[in-house]
Design brief:
The chain has about 350 residues and is mostly beta strands. The chain has a single domain (about 15-339), classed as YVTN repeat-like/Quinoprotein amine dehydrogenase (Methylamine Dehydrogenase, Chain H), CATH 2.130.10.10. It has strands at about 20-25, 30-35, 40-45, 45-50, 55-70, 75-80, 85-90, 95-100, 110, 120, 125-130, 135-140, 145-150, 155-165, 175-190, 195-200, 205-210, 215-220, 230, 235-240, 245-250, 260-265, 270-275, 280-285, 290-295, 300-305, 315-320, 325-330, 335-339. It has a 7-stranded antiparallel β-sheet, with no helix packed on it.
Amino acid sequence: MTTLHMADDRTDTPSIVERIRPVSAGGPVVAVHYLKQAAAFVFGEETVLLVSPDGNERRVNVHTGAILSAASDGERLITGGDDGKVVAVDADGGTTTIASDDKRRWIDHVAVGPNGAVAWSAGKTAYAHAGKGETRALDVASTVGGLTFAPKGFRLAIAHYNGATLWFPNVQTPPEVLDWKGSHLGVWFSPDGKYLITTMQEPTLHGWRLADRQHMRMSGYAARVRSLDWTASGAFLASSGSDQLILWPFDTKDGPTGKPPKMLAPQKAALAVVACHPKQPVVAAGYADGLTLLVRIDDGAEILAKRPGAAPVTALAWRADGGALAFGCEDGEAGILDF
């Protein structure tokens, strides 16, 4: 495991920008994921760029139009496009079309789950496939806002207007609906499966403790929250939506109820993207002015990973062993930091 050595003197922020290995993206990066050792940069149109550890770059055409959604389990990248297709890409650049919508509707959201499970949505319909057998479908009350699988088992959470739905696709029992008024636009399970969190159209997060449906409101943001990630231990939920890194505590049975968040790494620009280190209590924070910092949760120590640029950071991803961080920006600037 690579260890990040971070200075405690925040008036003299150490820098690792000299470690950046530039990537010739050539277009806006909307997402980045690691497939084994290869970084997969997802563009807004048609293409995924795979960059191997030796720097070899390979472009893979996955859609005939815009790429609207992407998710990965570290083995495959799943993308959804406005061509109505759901496509899987492996680390070698091989592609498989998982589904084609018979009405050519946009594939707004995709998700990957345990044991090869895949989910996607088009309009009000969510689809789930367990890796074998038939595809199941469920219509919800409004357009799907987000999808995520539970950490264990074949269970899908679907965000939508006025709440979220929990669905076991292979079970005949009715789905469970979690109510909360408003437009829910993204959804995440906690790593232990005890909590479900949604982002909303308004600048707030909402959560449920699933054991008893206890509500949790996480508010006070300056803008809508567009990026969330859990720390490796599950003790904190990192989020954007402010000009600093907001970390909600989930290390007790009541979660963040009645507790203030940690607030670290304040900047003049808004925080755009967060990505938690897979092993250590460190968060990569990408800002709207192109700045990227590595922030240690325990004491707020910072490392400068990327200097401000011409456009916002739009994507961040750690390699599974924590030994590399890939980033992409709205103007096509992209790179990989090796530790």
